[in-house]
Structure formats: C-alpha cells, structure tokens
Design goal:
single chain; 121 residues; alpha/beta; 2-enoyl-CoA Hydratase, Chain A, domain 1; 5-stranded mixed β-sheet; 2 helices; 5 strands
C-alpha cells in the first residue's frame, strides 16, 4: 500500500518494522488520512505477522502535535464525528495489534524508546 502521511519499512531479518509520521510541515498532526493510514499499516503488519516490534517515530522536529485542528475548527458536526470515530478506531488498533509498539523519543538529550504495548513483549 502507498502512504502519504506515514512511511513504513520492515527489516524481516530482525522482525522489526519502522513507522514514521511524515507530515513535518504540519508538525505531524493527526488527521483522518494519517489515522486511517496508521490503522491500515498496523492491521496489514499484524495480518502478515512478519514483525514482532514496530518502532513509531516522526520526521521533523516534533513527534506529533495532536489532532490537525483545521479538521476540527468550523467543520460540520458529521465530519468531526467521523474524525473522532477514526481516532477511536486508531486507539483500539494500537491496543489490539499483536506487535510490541515502541515510540522513539526526540525530546530527551539522548535517543530513547517508550514501550507503548508492554503486554505484547
């Protein structure tokens, strides 16, 4: 699958996938497109079961600034509900994907990883 809001690579020899939020111009803000791509990517990786760990990182200076407010401000209520339903689906996917998820941090003086799914290890 081709993605625009994220990049995804796998090193099958190490059983590691790397997902990169790829909207540095928007400070990697999450909108429906980005969330749908993340969901599809995680579900595809889970279906193939070729990776055991997925590292989540970001391009640019900011990991993620939250929701893209332009997809919320002055939008019809139905569009906002769809966005929040997609956000809910993303949270469910993050909790149910069988791979361990690690977030690569940039805010620390050294590179670190935060375990997002310790139960999957």
């Amino acid at each position: 699958m081709t993605y625009t809001a994220i990049r995804y690579e796998e090193n099958k020899g190490d059983f590691i996938g790397v997902m990169t939020l790829n909207r540095p111009d928007k400070r990697n803000a999450l909108g429906r497109e980005a969330e749908e791509e993340i969901i599809a990517c995680l579900q595809d990786a889970a279906k193939r079961a070729e990776v055991k760990v997925i590292i989540l990182k970001a391009s640019g200076e900011v990991f993620c600034s939250g929701h893209d407010r332009l997809e919320i401000v002055r939008q019809p209520a139905a569009d906002i509900r769809r966005l929040f339903q997609t956000s809910f689906n993303l949270m469910v996917t993050l909790r149910t994907v069988p791979s361990a998820l690690l977030r690569k941090c940039k805010a620390l003086p050294w590179q670190a990883a935060v375990i997002l799914r310790p139960d999957a290890i």
